[in-house]
Amino acid sequence: MTPVDPTPPARAAAPLVSLVIPTFNYARFLPAAIASALRQDYPNLEILISDDASTDDSVAVIRRLAASDPRVRIVSQPRNLGMVAHWNWCLRETRGAYIKFLFGDDAFNSAHAISRLVDLLETHPSAVIATCARRVMDEASRPLDLWNPLRRAGLHGGRDVIGRCFIANQNLIGEPSAVLLRRSALDRGFSPGFRQLVDLELWLHFLEQGDLAYTPEPLVAFRRHDAQQSHLNHSRAIAQLETLQLIAQFLDRPEKRTAARLSEFDYRLIQFRATRYLRKAGRRLPGAVLLASEVTAPLPSAWRLACQVRHAVQRPLENLSRSLEKRRAALDIWSETAGARTNLL
Question: What pLDDT is recorded for position 330?
C-alpha cells in the first residue's frame, strides 16, 4: 500500500498586488488609511505611498507610521504634480499583476479587503475590474451612508455596466479606493482631459475590454469632507460637463449603444438629461449652455418632447427609490452602531 504523504500540495504563489496610496495634505487622515493598509492579510503586497509635495506634515506622518514595514516604499514628490498626473505617476511605478488604490483620506473597512477583491478577479478570468460596496464616513470617521449600487454579487457584463452607469447618471463602479484593476488590461493611465469623472472614464475604458466582478461587502470606507477635489469641482459644474464628454466618447456609435443594451430612446434620454443638468448648472457656470452645445448636438424637437415627458414621469419615481435606499442604508448603519454599543456593555 502506498503511504500517504501528510504534506498538503503546494499552492500557487499569490500574485503580486501593488497597493498605491497617493496623498496631498491629508496628514490628519493618513493614520487611519496607513493602519488599514498595513493590516491587510494578503500575503504578496507591495505598498507605495506617494506624497504630492504636501504643505502639511504628511511626510512626517507617513515615515513615522510606515517606514519600518519592508513592504512600504515612501516617495515625496519634489514638486506638486497635480491630481491626475500624480495618479498616473503612481501607476507607472507599480509592478503587480493587480493594482489597488487607497486614497490618503479613505481606509479599508476590513483586513481581508485586498484578499477578497483578488479572489474575485482570480475566480472570474473575464473580469478586468473588481469592486465592492463601501461605507461613507465624515471627517471624524462617523458613518454617514452605505453605498451598494450594483447589489448582486458575482460577475457583471462590462458593456452592460457601462449602459447602467449612463442610465443612472452615476458612477456605479466606485471610487478608486473601492476598485482593484487587472494590470493586463491597463493600456493607458487616467485621462488628463478629465478633472471630476477621471476615474469613471478609465473604468469605462476598462469595461470596453472585459467584465466586472462585484461583492456587496463594504470592504472600504470612503470619506466625505470639504477639502476633497470632488467637493471643490461641484461648485463649478465640472461633473455635468464631463458627463457629456463621456457620452460623446463611449456612446458615439450605434454598435457601442447596442453592446451597452441601450435603445435609441435610452440614448436620447441620456443626452437630454445630461444637457438639462448642465443647463441648470448655468447659474454657477457662466457659458454652460455654450459648453453643452459644443459637446453634443441639440436634440430634434420630437425627441426632446418625448424625453421631457419621460423625464417628468420617471424622475419622481427615481427620487423616491433613492430616498428609500438612503433610509435603508441609514437603518443598516444604525443597527450596526447599536450592536457595537451593546457589545461594549
Answer: 60
